[in-house]
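Researcher: Hi, I'm a grad student and pretty new to this. My advisor asked me to get structures for two proteins we've been looking at. I'm not sure of the right format, so I'll just paste the first sequence and hope you can take it from there.
Model: That works fine. Here's the first sequence with its structure tokens right after it:
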Amino acid sequence: MLCCTAMMDLGSELGVPPYVFYPSGANFLGFMLELQALHDEGKLGDLAELKDTESEMAIPSLEKPLPCKFLPSVVVEKEWLPLLIDNTRRLREARGIVVNTFLELETYALGSVSVAGNPPVYPVGPLLNLNSARPEEEEEEEYKEVMEWLDGQPAGSVVFLCFGSMGSFAKEQATEIAAALERAGHRFLWSLRRPSEMGITGVPGEYENFDDVLPGGFLDRTSGVGKVIGWAPQMAVLGHQSVGGFVSHCGWNSVLESIWFGVPVGAWPMYAEQQLNAFQLVEELGLAEEIKMDYRWDGGMMVTAEEIEGGIRRLMAAENDEGRKRKTVKEVSEMSKKALTEGGSSCSSLSRFIQDVIDNIS
């Protein structure tokens, strides 16, 4: 794993060739390799300051220049950057890097990291826990209620709002989201969770009463078209035929899940590397619509109802880009499944990885 690069020395002592599993995409891998190179050459500026400017950065894993306002949160946090730089430097010592992506999705990014001087890169994804679509025993009742509600909705009519295991909103932002949903008029399923007192490092909790955090009368006015929940069975929801759009924090697992099920994304990143993922989805791959790509959960930013409403309308519009974007998502979805079949790109890459391990051990 990426966070365990310190174990590479132990593996070498035991005669075990060091390989690293990289759970993010090839784009973030290329981004970090570039940042580490710039840092070691003394050419990396203060990223925390750059994010508030109109500057752009040329990143080899991106075809377009990256506006600095979309720098991922994890690299503008000064306590995290040195750790990431050190880990990335150690990556270069690995015999290979196994990445949770597939060639057809990140063709350009994979080409940029597969160059002389870097370890071989093996894209073997999408690696998804499809069994997580089924709930744990204690979540069975909530799961059944959500799925029964979705069963009663027309195909492709529901926008699903869910922001990962660490995503949450306080009353002020929840009020803006509620206003946007009511004005947009689309059917919705909204996973709304309470922020932890520990901030972004704490696990969100559940609201005991949604009326305490949502505008007065909202639940009554939208009872025929919407449902607000706490915990959400994300995989099962994305796989339901009634879901036509996914407003997401753009965590890499969520990105791969949305692609697998062919659901377009409304990009609203919050922390970690998610701003970079969002930029890639919206600007490079054309698989998403922007809600607010420069949002940072701990930055005190408020996304307005107008911004959210506009993003949801674009996401859910049947005539979206004359149907091209929704069609593209479906095509990439099929590619993600084919990649894992015999002879597919990820299956073949896995075979090359296994052979390389065998050759290096022997």
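Researcher: Oh nice, that was easy. Here's the second one.
Model: And its structure:
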Amino acid sequence: MSFIFQGKGLFAKKSIRKGETIFIERPLVCAQFLWNAQYKYKACDFCLRALETAEENAQRLSGIPGLSLPHPELCPVRPELHQTCPQCQVMYCSSECRQRAADQYHQSLCLGPSQDDPDHPINKLKDAWRSMHYPPETSSIMLMARMVAMVKQAKDKAHWQKLFSYFCSRTANEEEEIAHKLLGEQFRGGLSLLHSLFTAALYDEHLSRWFVPEGFRSLFALVGTNGQGIGTSSLSQWVHACDALDLSAQQRAHLDSFIDQLYKDIEKGQIYLTVAACNHSCIPNAEASFPDNNFLLHLNALSDISPGEEICISYLDCCQRDRSRHSRQKTLRENYLFTCSCPKCTSQMDELDVTSEEEEEEEAEAEGETEGDEMEDEMTDV
């Protein structure tokens, strides 16, 4: 192991070179975003691997049913291996994933013939969540449901409760801010309704502390701040495989032109234990990626890391990190409830508290927007 935990930070035990994979991690719990599933994006219910072929993905996103992709052999999806739950027809990428889901949580959450029944308590919970938390999604109530199911099915219930409690360390005010961020101005009424539906659908006496109002808020804050969104797309994997083809200049130009037009057509139309210990920096020395098109998280070094140096990721994307200190701090306070004191923020402490021009423009555009565009990489929640 090339790292150690200190408090809730992660520090290097040995030298780590730029580009080196620091670790690969499976999530403790994961679930597909509910609106993402509603839009018919097919993902394995266990590992979140894309189940659509690249061609099916391109057809759906572009709205062109007869679209054919060249080099279909480059698509990584293998439909012949896919399996479904015999009771509720939930889909998996393999028999292994189906069995693991059944062993860990699915026995408790399988709706059987009631899968499409709007009056089933779990479907009522999902509908309520979708009515409060619109795309772009940042979390899912089903993460909480699977946490309950995992403890229900576990032989060592105390072990799993202890693992999940590792993330619960928010004050009442912080939990309220997180609920506000996820549910909007009417969050108090929304949170009360979700609590009622959550209890009706999933109550378990072994987890009674999660079902009282205070415990539910704590659980809600847990998934609101520790979730890691991932992108899985068979189409993007096909595009990357096309980039590696050995083609003549004419063939390359033709393929690139096809892919460019495809993207123009489209534009028209997981909680992890170890990575959660990584603190934020506006100049991170590591970043998470999902190269296997499933829930496996790879943490890679962005620069050389010395023994004893803290391993930090960024909770902001590249564009956000380029904004003013004031803009970065505002985003971090609103979404993660802390004030950043990384070297970059410290060095810019004397700057005026001015919002970046880009952010002002985005906020002005957002006020006039009523619908969001579909993106190339469709997001699932872990």
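Researcher: Is there anything I should tell my advisor about the second?
Model: You could mention this: The first helix runs from residue 34 to 38.
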